[in-house]
Amino acid sequence: MNIQLSASDKIEIEKIIDRMSEADKELIYEQVKAIVEPMRVNPAESAMSDYLPRHFDYPIISLSQEDSTSQELAHQFVWDYVTRAAKWEYAVEVFKGKHSYQEVA
Questions:
Q1: Partner of 24 for a Cys bridge, out of 20, 56, 90, 99, CB 3.0 to 4.6 A?
Q2: Structural domain includes residue 68
Q3: pTM here?
Q4: Is residue 13 a part of any domain in this protein?
Q5: Which residues, including other chains, have CB under 8 Å from residue 91's CB and lie 6 or more apart?
Q6: Does residue 56 belong to any structural domain of this protein?
Q7: 57: alpha, beta or left, given left = phi > 0 and alpha = psi -120 to 50?
Q8: Does residue 70 register a pLDDT over 50?
């Protein structure tokens, strides 16, 4: 999808996100669940594996990644990030539908 948005368009899309109904949020939840749950490797942990060696020795990185709190943080980050992307996708579609309808009318 290639879309050019103005600052006011982005504000309008944020408002669409803020006004999502519970039914819309449930659809987003199911979409995110379908994306995140099948993951075998957490991309946040993979990124940290590439980044952390600049600052820490491998044994520390390994211990950190085996830590359940670190795993939960990485999972929550991915869940939240995918959720945000799904909300934007939904809101952009609503925005496009609204504006294409106005152009026809």
A1: 20
A2: yes
A3: 0.82
A4: no
A5: 13, 14, 16, 17, 20
A6: yes
A7: beta
A8: yes
Confidence category of residue 102, pLDDT binned at 50, 70, 90: low
Contacts of 63 (CB under 8 A, 6+ apart): none
Q: How many distinct structural domains can be found in the chain?
A: 1
The pLDDT of residue 105: 44
Does some domain include residue 93?
yes
In this model, does residue 2 exceed pLDDT 60?
yes
Can you tell me the distance from the alpha carbon of 6 to that of 38, in angstroms, rounded to the nearest whole number?
36
Domain that holds residue 51: 18-104
- CA 33, CA 45: separation in Å to the nearest integer? 18
Cα 73 to Cα 104: distance, rounded to the nearest angstrom: 47
